[in-house]
């Protein structure tokens, strides 16, 4: 990288903002401490951007948009191709930093970056997605065609759990559609977005198209209230998503807010037991369960699956957390102390709620890392809907098991959940899979696949309280979210003879 911002952060101890094409130290006196989740060592201080800095970012983005909207899409795409190549070239470097600040294993961190690169790759086909529609002769001698236009300055607010992938869901697509973008990344892992931004600048995008402001609720509310910001993309927890959606739409902005979840995997008695068990282990504890598409509830159908809990227990007991760099670790620490304590409390309260605590990871320790935010793999059996461990998103390496008699009961259970992010069914029966896929009220369904995250040419289609808005992230829906359609009706009469006024609404 041309100017290594990570080295700069290590020497100044402060994360810079990115305003008007330049990395700058904030003038704020208000900072948030960034800690290594495996050790609590202080990595850096994250600035809470000042009002003047945020205003400057908006002004710069507005000015950049005026020029950028005139750049042909194919030219914008060329910058994106360069960006994609740079992200690939630096994928490992980014993953190392990502792994340090989130605690993810290196392999998982590589995946985080890779899934983001895939979105950039999809954006490289934007020339086709920006095509409008044409119909000749909608009425005699009248033709109609539509154009797709960028909307202006857009903003994105991202969560801690995918610091590469989720920012990359947003600004590459918004920018290649012709917009300018202001990113407010999670204050819990701002180094990864800093690296992504540095490469964005290196790809040669004109200054001002991407601005990065750090902070918390204050910065988010500033973006939601600013009249010059036209659209807001948000990913995070349900209460904050609801706040962002309400406040943004109250201010008449376009808002898409992807939120939290509780995802069920329905296991039919005819499913392949080994496949079920290994899928449950990976999808419940991968990334320490800190994924919005993690499977947190296994719904075992029928008597024949009752004793599968023993197999799940054995498999979960066979994995362990560890610090980045520990090749035997299945996952890392939780993001911060507060999350660790919250998950611990939920686990420790589960027995009193009436659940069978089959595996208790609340007292987990990792040798050499006494201060890490560790939670061991945790398994609850005989969970019911009234328990907190079921109704709350645990966001930790914990799996709830529930038992039902029939597929219909399983569908009723899943449909009664307020969340609708993802679900899956494991079965050998096409009929059961088809019924589940059709009747279940969840935005993303996996069949013999645990985490059905769509590739970037589809969209990420969570529903119910896992999503507020109508146009979803990435894919064709993101193009519609970041653009406006203009429709032109035209007539070129062959004679100069006036037709006289038409007093009706019909087109002849
Ligand atoms: P979070 O809601 O705490 O924070 C998300 C962003 O909102 C951050 O940038 C944060 O600074 C900001 N923020 C926090 N509190 C705020 C407030 N009161 N007002 C305004 N802004 C505020 O989420 P998190 O803990 O960073 O991420 C985990 C959550 O995100 C989980 O619930 C997870 O399921 C969800 N998530 C959802 C998806 C999805 O696509 N549906 C993807 C990833 C994560």
TrEMBL record:
Species name: Salinisphaera aquimarina
Origin superkingdom: Bacteria
Name this protein carries in UniProt: CoA-acylating methylmalonate-semialdehyde dehydrogenase
GO MF annotation list: oxidoreductase activity
Keyword field: Oxidoreductase
Homology family: Belongs to the aldehyde dehydrogenase family.
NCBIfam families: MMSDH
EC number(s) on file: 1.2.1.-
Ranges for domain Aldehyde dehydrogenase: 23-488
Entry annotated with the keyword Oxidoreductase: yes
